[in-house]
Amino acid sequence: MKAILLGGIAALQTYFIVYLIIDLVKHREQLSITAHKREYVWGAVIGGITSGLDTIGIGSFAPHTFLMNVTRTNDDKKLPGTLNVSHCISVLIEAFIFISVVTVAPLTIFSLIISSIVGSWIGSRTISTFSERKVQLIMGIALLLTSVLMILRQQGFLDILGKGNEAMSLTGGKLIIGIVGNFVFGALMTVGVGLFAPCMAMIYLLGISPIVAYPIMMGSCAGLMPVACVEFIKADHYDRVHSFSAILGGIVGVLVAARFVTGLDVSSLTWIIILIIIYTGIVYIYKGTHRSSPREAESHI
Q1: What are phi and psi of 206, to 5 degrees?
Q2: Which residue ranges run through the membrane (predicted)?
Q3: Domains in the chain: how many in total?
Q4: Which domain holds residue 168?
Q5: What pLDDT does 211 receive?
Q6: How crowded is residue 208: how many other Cβ atoms within 10 Å of its Cβ?
Q7: Distance (Å, rounded) from C-alpha 267 to C-alpha 121?
């Protein structure tokens, strides 16, 4: 079962990588290192930092959004696509680690992953049609929602939900709830709401053992992101220079975080990032609800 699941995820990732390479080659005139030296450097740095944060359990989308704003490398209309494309490959690496070591009932993990993929496909096709102002507002709300979920997890409320859970699979009505929930979370992933925390809360509430949550979450992200990313690429809804450099930096970030960040005070770092996320969310809501020009709005960051 694991071999089939990992093979399916790898096939989706290969599909994404091939599509990405074709698109980059097709638009190679936009990828000049000389003309975009600053964007390449910041993309690699931001990708490395945020993928490292994701590896140690903090998340990547929200801090990535903040850092792009700080470094003035953001294109808000293309932000959802840029975030997904930038972290697609690094999430694959994380998924292979967790799925390889934890056994989950085939029907449960396959159905939840497939539903998240369908949700991301619909979500990515929808978000690509939105105006920049609407994307800004959605991102602001998504960031504030993310901060709330991170606070709940930081305070241990999500862990409490899973305490005493022993089930390794979902059946009947619980399986249907899980499928519908992961469909929604897959769609929300394409607008910047990370799947991990809400998916974890749902799985715990359905009685699943905490150890099973991680392969489901990682597998869902690794499966849905390639599908969503291809849709973003088709719609020209991502920043090519930033995404390409962030992918390279992200691979390094995952490997470094997995090997060398064992002594880091993750709790204190998480609280700092939560404050940053709240601030960034407020800024995006301001930009999405005020009629100032994009440059004027950016001056508030």
Answers
A1: -85, 0
A2: 6-25, 96-123, 135-152, 173-206, 212-232, 244-262, 268-286
A3: 1
A4: 2-298
A5: 75
A6: 25
A7: 34
